[in-house]
## 1
Amino acid sequence: MIAGLQFDPISLPPETETLRKEVRAFIAEEQTSGTLSQRNSDDDGYCPEFSRKLGARGWLGMMWPKAYGGQERTAFDRYVVNEELLVSGAPTSAHFVADRQSGPLLLRFGTDQHKQEIVPAIARGELTFCIGMSEPHSGSDLASVQTSARKTDGGWIINGTKLWTSWAHRADYMITLVRTSPLDKDRHNGLSQFVVDMKSPGVEVRPIINLRGQHDFNEIMLTDCFVPDSMMVGGEGQGWSQVTSELGYERSGPERFLSTFALFRELVRVIGPAPTPTEAAAIGRMAVHMMTLRRMSISVAGMLQEGRAPNVEAAVVKDRGTAFEREMPELVRLLMPTEPSRDAEVDAYARALGDAMVLVPQLTIQGGTREILRVVIARGLGLR
Ligand SMILES: Cc1cc2nc3c(=O)[nH]c(=O)nc-3n(C[C@H](O)[C@H](O)[C@H](O)COP(=O)(O)OP(=O)(O)OC[C@H]3O[C@@H](n4cnc5c(N)ncnc54)[C@H](O)[C@@H]3O)c2cc1C
């Protein structure tokens, strides 16, 4: 039997509009006299000072229990804050991983110590995290990770290499997936997660420069790195089920279709108030795509709010959202030709096009490639 996808039609509750106004006012203030006014055009979107300001306003860890520094607000409130930050181009890289993934993971599987000491500091925007899942020979096939942890007195000794680890060079901690017991018939057994302090002896972070000429991801060599027992997350051998639950949070947010929004806005600006029918149709088509993706994404937020695990729907949002983002620069270039550029001195439209062209290839790879998402979707629909 073929199961169906379920995207319940959900509208954002009216009270979120008050919050939206607050976020917009804060961003406007920051753009004129705050941290945002000091950003330069080659900024990499990583600004701990701005993240701490969000933390002080209660806009990080918004859904988490108040006992652990959260605000006990809804998934819709969190959605609105993220949406406004993304469309304004605010720097979210310093807190994004911890707010979206590491905090929820620690709240779900971590010890009391993790919840009392680490989680509140994430909510204040004071601690940054990276995700150590991928390795040189383990990306899509994550269960094949070879980094291993061997038991020793009071903790574990980790050896191995992690790859493509975003912001590892600036992170305080990494949540990593490693093998804690030898391979058996089921490769998903014997994997565990640890919180690794990035200042520990035996952690070496090597930069990898991306297509944009920027340093955001890394290779990490772990050599006899000691991690205390207290830093294991969840149960020994439970890493696989924990990691797969984490991917649900990762795949469905507005960041999965708004990464190229700055280009869309520039296109609308250069076309101006009197578009030709062809221009109007193209802009309308792109807007409709974004509106539909937004409704699907909000629907997933609603299911997360109800405590459901809409992994297949989240995979659909990421697949469709990033496919749209990948197409956009080409659609825009054909509609309004210009020489794309990454030079800060050229006009804003050429710059937005240049930025988007070198950004989009990564979007359908990070967080699960298209092919892998389609496997998840096919399985979820009972087709495989
Ligand atoms: C910008 C960026 C940031 C990243 N940040 C992080 C991070 O912070 N932490 C982290 O752990 N990882 C990170 N990654 C790594 C990312 O998760 C992996 O690149 C991704 O999972 C793919 O793995 P891979 O690169 O090893 O490619 P592979 O798994 O080798 O895949 C190569 C190609 O083969 C296809 N393929 C593989 N298996 C199958 C299959 N079974 N069926 C059909 N096709 C298949 C893939 O779809 C892909 O097209 C990041 C990647 C990028 C691009």
## 2
Amino acid sequence: MPRKRPDADESTTPMKGHSVTCRFCGQKNAVKPDYVNGEANCGRCKLPLSNEPHKKFANLHKNDYVHPLDKKALAAVKAIPGVDSALKKLLEWTGESAIRVMFMASAVKVTPNQCPDLYAKLEIACNTLGVEKPDLYLQQNPIVNAFTGGVEKPIIVLHSALIERLNDEETLAVLAHEVGHIHAEHVLYLTAARLIEALINVSIARLIPGSEIIKLIVSMGLASALLNWSRQAELSCDRAALLVVQDPHVIGRTMMKLAGGTFASKIDYDLFLEQGREFKKNYDESRLDRFWADVMNSGLSHPFPIWRVAEVLEYVETGEYEALMEKE
Ligand SMILES: [Zn+2]
Ligand SMILES: [Zn+2]
């Protein structure tokens, strides 16, 4: 391969007006001479090019952003006597390989060559939060969802409907939320919560070897404490998503699409935000418990999007987000 002439080395002398370095993934992109800031997308990660800086956290700790409700609910789980040995038994029965099969049967593995822009987004989320890259799968599924599971080695699965619905920035937000579960050390308990949820109502659970441990977990109150925690853990990961996309409105619009489905293009975003604020205002402390009980009983894997967007707005408006962005 011929060596570049020193004056052609773009890594030290970017040609101003002709190339723009992606603030997210670092790829250098050739742009037209009449390029206007923000009016083109990166060829690698497909995110919008911009002159704005993008912060990568050198030393982010989960306690820097974890939501107080997540902390409180996790403490309640950990206070149950015998929790660790019960969960260990549950996960011993399923094992890492069973979980991987359950989560990724019929899924496509995302690699630097397979869906490279998705892989680049995973890399951005991991580099920003400081997390080792997990395996990422894309699964054909009409339900707009994504999840993270595993025991020793976490994996992330994105449903096809999610990718089809969201734009590139919103897809980054969802991936960053999932990477947040890894960073916040949720994965083991989250996997246990999903397993319990999946097995608890299945009649064949009586026939499979894990049924005794499921009965034990339900009887010791661990199932409800764990499921309650798993919904509140989502609020921490919405914050992690914000730390990666670094624009609260990307999170807001993602939630709007989750709430409004295919009609999201016709929904007024400002009114949606207002609805979120009003929703939160109406729920004082005494109503909060009832709210979470409703969410639990409704069998949702995530809290309502309206609630989530209100929580993210509050995180920004109290100045907590900005303080963390300025730290280090
Ligand atoms: Zn890029
Ligand atoms: Zn989540």
## 3
Amino acid sequence: MKSYFPINADRIREDLEALARFNSTPGEGVTRLPFTKEAREACEFLKERFRAAGLETREDAIGNIIGVLPGKDRELPAAAMGSHYDTVYNGGMFDGQAGVISALEIARCLREQGIKLERDFVVIAFNDEEGVRFHRSYLGSYGILGRDQQQAIRDYKDRDGISIREAMMSWDMDPDRISEAVWDWKKVRAFIELHIEQGPVLDSEGLEVGIVQSVVGFRRYMVTVHGRADHSGTTPMDLRSDAVDTASRVIAWMGDFARSLNDGTVATAGYLRVEPCVENIVPSSCEFSAEVRSEHRESLDAFTEGLKKMLRESAELCKTGFEIVEKMDIPPVKLSRELCDRLEESCRSRGFSHKRMHSGAGHDAQEIASACETVMIFAPSRDGRSHCREEWTDFEDIAKAAAAAYDLVTGL
Ligand SMILES: [Zn+2]
């Protein structure tokens, strides 16, 4: 396998394959949910690898694994790099994990090259980024950011009714001490997250590295349209109240509107439920989700305004009522221009084809960007597939992205 000095692609492959063995669904993709036996095994494996690389290694109060390669001046703000070690159900061996292992590989290379950085280099493997077990994301990164999570760790439960708090206790962790995980952000110069793209852009354009300049914001609404159940044959059009007639106008508008913006904005109605859902009855109720993602706040605002207007007009036309509830509102995040420039310089000098892009998926880095200079690097996902067992990124492509990150870290 081809390597990109000093990054060793074979070593990245070995570690990723070893990590993938901590999996509750062997043969059916990788499943490693937070606070499970597989997650514990992965943590112990990472700690052992971090120590073998000469890192000062610890597990923090919220289940993140942290390794520090000491720099010459330990008072200088550190450079940190990492991603998450949990997975979705039946996911792949790259999402999150590629970023953890790349950061570890960079630390190993620094040590082998006899390079002592000016500042500490911190490798971090975050706990519970995906949020699939407890239906809540970013437990580990919120932990180091010091966000108040006490309420959430009591309230959010998995499908067996186990709360995050109880899951933590099953790992002999003290949920009342999670504030000990908080970082002093004055002592952090930069945060870097290498991640697989999880979308088709790099692969379809034949590019090697993605430099992520922003992470999209998103809003999610749940809309319920109320109509009246009547005989579909005997009720004239002007005397009926059809919930689907209303909803379908709004849903068709969503896609048209996103396309008309032509700025990368995407809109999706992924959830749809019709009552009574019978061929010969006018629908009495239609519930649907309306989600929009964009790197432009104005586009999110315009969508919200348009959605509500469209709902009012369609409901009036079809003589229906409606409710709209906002479920989520995450603002778009601009990543560090300085760090993007440095990455671009590295890609240019190494001859990697690259482009600046935004991330359409959420990541730990988007939260950390509120606390320090942050950047993300993408490696191509084959056919854009991710969060499924077909997820694949060539190890050489991970090594290229890691080499660009290596240049960034040594240049700081
Ligand atoms: Zn991820």
## 4
Amino acid sequence: MTNVTHLDAPLIVGAGVAGLSVALGLDRSFTVTAPEMGSTWWAQGGIAAALSSDDSPELHASDTLSVSGGLAVSKVVEILTDGGAAAIERLVSLGAEFDRDDEGNLLLGQEGGHQTRRVVHADGDATGAEVMRALTAAVDASETIESLEGRVVDLVIVDDRVAGVVTADGKKRTILLAPAVVLATGGAGRLYARTTNPVGVTGDGIAMAGRVGARLADMEFVQFHPTALLAGKDPMPLLTEALRGEGAKLVDPHGRRFMDRYHPKAELAPRDIVARAIFWQYDRGSGAYLDCRNVLNFHERFPTVTAHALSVGLDPTEHLLPVSPAAHYYMGGIDADANGRTSVAGLWAVGECSSTGVHGANRLASNSLLEGLVFGARVAADVGHDQVDPAGQPMAPKEAFDLPLVAGPALEDLRQIMWDRVGLIRTGDGLWEARNHILELDSVLRRTVAGRVAADLSLMVVLAALRRSESRGGHYRADYPEPDPIQEHRTLIDPTQVDLVPVG
Ligand SMILES: Cc1cc2nc3c(=O)[nH]c(=O)nc-3n(C[C@H](O)[C@H](O)[C@H](O)COP(=O)(O)OP(=O)(O)OC[C@H]3O[C@@H](n4cnc5c(N)ncnc54)[C@H](O)[C@@H]3O)c2cc1C
């Protein structure tokens, strides 16, 4: 008999910037989180917000739209950029300490795709850790938020409404029933062999939402960060975009700059363009390095990057840093409206696991911490109005109870195929090869919880990428290198609900 616990308030799965923002906005809530850290802790560059006198939410919205490949939804973007100043104020009121000048004004960084300086940061390049410190302290001090630890493996349905989750601890399963469920489980970068995402960022929430039939969106759109440190580490250490904002240059092995051949903004071109330029450097048998030697006070301003580089014997003030693109941010995910509502009653999604159209086909740098803060607050307000105590028979996918958690070597094969064939340069032939290879691995992958997630998601990424026979934002097809106006729309997928069995 599986243990069933009835919670008397909404349950939030995930405790990154998005999940904790929801929790802090509700009168009462529960969070449940896997032990591995999500991406928020690792965020370096900062939070974009229109704060300076030469900036405005409209300008920030226009920058967001212009890198989005025409797919961002302007009313959702406006909500994001209008909320910037209030989100920063709120974090400051919770005790977050951002970098300031001698007069106490917030220091604003410059990043690619932004027309002006608007990136708030902490401890130079440790913004995510400071955001998490402030949010976690507020949650710990709250008497109305209860934090649980557990790996959620599936959603529970009662009377066609999401009404809880199944958590796993080894072979033990527990059912948590709740009047509303919010998924805030982060992105899916671990689908790729080269990624900046920490080990917990496996796309679990997206896969489990799909299994109960929630609509998914824009699954082909993965953002590859141009500059991860190429030094044999997994995850690959990120060399924040802010470095290029502060004057670091991309150079070939002879120290010659190459970005001006690809875009008028050179090193500050949108991420997808910089990432592909670096890829082509390697493809031509050359290489790519970040030259940070002209960045003033480097060690003091970029302590996180300094520590990563020194750990592999490189000092950024003396050495060129070898770089490679790496999967970094997932624009695809659970289709959600501007209040985080999904296509299934009782289920909300927020943060990187959601796809609201706020980023379209390509995310503007430093917009995702802001997304978690702004939409987290909106989800909290909406969830507060729609709660139903689950009274009927709970149902869940059968596999939730049968499978071991940890995946075997087949998952590493899958990650390599995704990098080789479904990475930043895609072709129809390569995508078909990836599809066939993933199907060969399918039966082995499906023997574990982690493998099942990866099999489902990777196939959806491949099929969406095959269907989009054009290039747009993070999705680049070498066989269709131009955007096709007829395909200027989001990709929506309605997965078939898997068979559910009575539980509890
Ligand atoms: C190295 C790096 C640097 C970045 N720098 C920036 C930046 O400077 N600015 C910016 O805006 N963005 C940046 N990003 C992106 C940004 O950090 C993320 O998009 C954002 O933090 C996502 O927040 P989230 O709350 O949606 O998810 P996360 O912070 O990833 O949190 C997900 C949570 O869900 C939990 N979880 C996952 N699966 C399960 C499960 N099955 N059961 C239970 N719990 C689960 C995790 O444990 C975690 O608590 C960066 C990302 C990386 C990796």
